[in-house]
Amino acid sequence: MERHDAIVIGGGLNGLTAAAYLARAGVDVLLVERNERLGSAAAGYDIRPGFRMPRFTLGTVSLPAHTVSDLELTKFGLRLMRVDGGISLTGEGRYHASYRDGLMHRRELARLSVKDADAWTRFRRDMLRANLALRDVLAHPMRDPSRRTLAAFRGLLSGADKVAAKPSEDMHDLLRIWSMPMADFLDSYFTSDLIKLHLAAKALAGTTLGPYSPSSARFLMNAFMGEAEGAAGGAPATVLAMGGPEAVANALAASIEAHGGRVRTEAEVTDVILRDGKARGVALADGAEVYANAILSDLDLKRTFLALFPWNELPKGFVERVSRFRMRGVTAKINLALDAMPEFPALPDGCPALQGGLRLVTSMMSLERAYDDWRDHLPPRLPLVEMLIPSMTDRSLAPQGKHVMSVAVHYVPEFLHDGPWSNERRDRLSDLVISEIAAHSPDFKDKILSTETLVPPDIESEVGLTAGDFEQGEMTLDQMFFNRPMPGLAGYDTPIANFYLCSGSAHPGALETGGAGAGAAARVAVALGHAPIHRKGSVL
Amino acid sequence: MSLSDRHFDAIVIGAGHNGLIAASYLAKAGRRVLLLEASTRLGGALTTAEVSPDYRVSTAAHLLDALPRRIEKDLKLARHGLRYAKRTVQTIALDHDLNHITLSSKRSDLDILRRHSPADAAAYPRFAARMKSYAGVLGPLLQDMLPAGAPEPLSRRLRRLIWRAERLGSETLEDLMRQLPGSIGDMLDDAFETPLLKGALALDAVIGTGEGPYSAGTALNAITRKGLRSISNGPHIVEGGLGGFTDALSAAAASFGVIIRAATDVKRILIVDGMVRGVETQSGDVYEAPLVLSSAHPRETMLGMVGAKYLDAGLVKQLTEIVDTGATAKLNLSLDGLPTIQGLSPQEYGARFLITPSLASLDGAYAAFKHGGFATDLPLEMTIPSVTDAPLAPPGQHVMSIVIQYVPYQATGGWEGSRDRLVDHVIETLSEFAPDLRDRIVAGELMLPQDFERKFGLVNGGWYHGDMRLDQLLTSRPAPGLARFSTPLRGLYLCGAGSHPGGGICGLPGEYAARLALSEGVRA
């Protein structure tokens, strides 16, 4: 009988991070992944021989610096590249680029509005400050305010004191960014429509809110998460991994194995084995059973509880609460192999910011309309299109002179109002998007060697993300922090003893890659009687 | 003018209901109060006027929904003529299949809801009870003055809030925490399945605002409205329309000794050494007082009447950025007889009717509004006040009062020509329930957001002096730097809907500002 201290179900970045932290803490951990490749949505594939690209995600990487250093990912082969922040291009051929270099970025802003170049300093400072405050929150496990323990109650009271003691100006700044609609928030800094649109399009990509939705302003701070404070003021970098985002998964796996953990792919868990209501192990599709004292699930909340457990083993009302957890797909992916580098005549020659991606934008109102269409489950008319050509930065991804282009199409619903996605509908989506791109790039269509379109249901069936939701549960205020995945379940524990949630459905969700995995690992390490895990820059 | 005609203990600017209430509380406490109103009429948007000769109706809002019983009692409004034509008006969601849903937990009403969905009929009383307990936790927050800046009282208040919440029981508490930052749409999707029921409850939460049913913060709005209703008496129809309420407030103010000057527009608030000295009117008259309370829009008060030079740049920016979104229009109709609303018993005609078939249609109307248009099936709140208040119309005849939700301030392509189309849509929607309505119409009057702006000075036609939106509520109301009622200028207070807890006809900003001004003890 195979037995370990802990089993992690699912080899997405959170599962891998959880296993890596556990292995380093001396826990005998086994990670099992259903698919052949690790990384879940971040897994790579060859769209045609010699053309490698991430299959489901755009390909940018956001990984907290402390994870890289804690888990020594550099030692295990991870090479991160910081490039400029990308470009937005309008239908009339106007553009705005983000440069890491403070002086260049200022010049670029001033080209559109001198006033906005000054406002940038203020905006950047406020974004960094908001992230700093958030980091404070992320560094601690979420206490569940509804838990009836004295400690929880005391925690709440001291939290209240802390809030009250903050200078009221800081508190108001935080309230503003967490509650305001993004469009109004940007209006309070900038005058140039293009600058506002550039920031909004980047921030809204992949979210389930529109620019005029209350509480959407907070997405603006995400881009600044990995930015150092104090550096003279450029735009936040786009981070790429050499070899694509799957390189992050591979480095994490190497880190696990180097510390005695085990990673098994093509091993699908069909059931969690329960004894006396406690999780004791997992049953695999090949009939094998593996036992452990702690089991962590990197599957989303719905898939975890609706697929791995018989419903009658779950507490009354729990299944209903799980099914109320909102998960909606919002992003489709179009993968392209290109015979040559596409040209964009509207952009300056050799603009370095192109390495950070290119977004096609029209107006704030059209972004809102795309969001409205998504909510109405209409076939996208003017979706938010985001492109990345990772082979510009990493030549190994495509043959000499050729390229791969990753296109993320946002505000694409998981099903359409009049039925599911059909092949014809997929083709229509990719025709629409490719024509949009071709309108800015002559001969673009002639350069396409291969193309593949993946809509949210494809993502669900291949990766297992319910509804094709990359966030594993919408990141709306009512599903964040101590409400994630639901009130009463905020601390990675579940109603099943020995069974923990370590996926993005848990806190902090999409706020930090691997954050839920690290948080769950800390919880489990304590539960298994190991020393607490310390992360650099945070206490878990 | 003698000295005593120019010197007062306090001056209140604006005789809307909040101004009248603030002035009354000050006068009741023995202060000599001067109340100045720019218009020739008192009451601001709370007025009753003729739709056509002999037919009168509340021009804008038409129900007294959230006036705390305490204010009614303190100001002895009953003695000064406040009469209710109907107390605690029922709310009925009109159904195309004539199974109209009355929003109540009464057995007979639930029986009808059961025809739509047995599950919802079972869930409704639980939902109502839950909303009530949420309101019980948050209600006191609305009645607190919510000071900002001073950490000590804030932490004490937060502790009290936590303590109240702790007593809820963990399931209710968990639910409250989940719902609080969310939307009314998600909340209702979780609770019910009947489209009509969800549509009506959602409309109730967003009416008058520029928010959609799925906008974050609308659940909080629904709960606070419930909280306000629980300290008031629920929706009432006032005799003589809301002008009748204004008359009672004015009479009360006068009885406490408030000196009221209408048609007196304040040009400037006079400041000396960071302290208020009085006001100067457009005609050049100067009135002096160490206390000035303004119920005008916070931006108009601080930037228009005080002037940016007395304020720090951050505050000026915040004031400039207060968002007002007009999203609501009003259609008033004179009718030569009572229209037949199908499926309704005679005693139900005095109710408040909500018309929106589903959350989806409500959300669709919101989407059209966002993009500068309006839907064909606009969400409506309708009353026929003359059913319970006959003198509003000639014998046997009636007036109908219709609040239209999601009408933009600026329509794409302009309002020329669109007004008739809007009226047509509304009559069409109502005719589906009352087929003979069209034949009964004698005259009508449409008030668009721009008309509210022109007539009542409401910026963009927004009803609340700053939208009741997540980022403009609680400590952020009216602006983060101005949370609560006092201002950086000693002796100057904000007492209008722009202050906590905000709009709706609750009078709390007026009462709180007056109490605060009294407690801070600035004396002549």
What does this structure look like?
- The complex is a heterodimer of chains A (about 550) and B (about 525).
- Chain A contains 16 helices and 20 strands.
- With about 550 residues, chain A is of the alpha/beta class.
- In chain A, the strands form five sheets. In chain A, strands 1, 2, 9, 10, 11, 12 and 18 form a seven-stranded mixed sheet that branches. Chain A has a seven-stranded mixed sheet with strand order 7-6-14-15-16-13-17, sandwiched between helices. A two-stranded antiparallel sheet of chain A has the order 3-4.
- In chain A, strand 11 (about 280-285) and strand 12 form a beta hairpin.
- Chain A is globular and about 65 Å long.
- Chain B is built from 18 helices and 19 strands.
- In chain B, the strands form five sheets. In chain B, strands 7-6-15-16-17-14-18 form a seven-stranded mixed sheet, sandwiched between helices.
- Chains A and B meet through helix 5, helix 6 and helix 12 of A and helix 6, helix 7 and helix 14 of B.
Question: Which key terms come to mind for this protein?
Answer:
heterodimer; A: 540 residues; alpha/beta; FAD/NAD(P)-binding domain; Polyamine Oxidase, Chain A, domain 2; 3 domains; 7-stranded mixed β-sheet; 20 strands; 19% strand; globular; B: 524 residues; 5-stranded parallel β-sheet; 38% helix
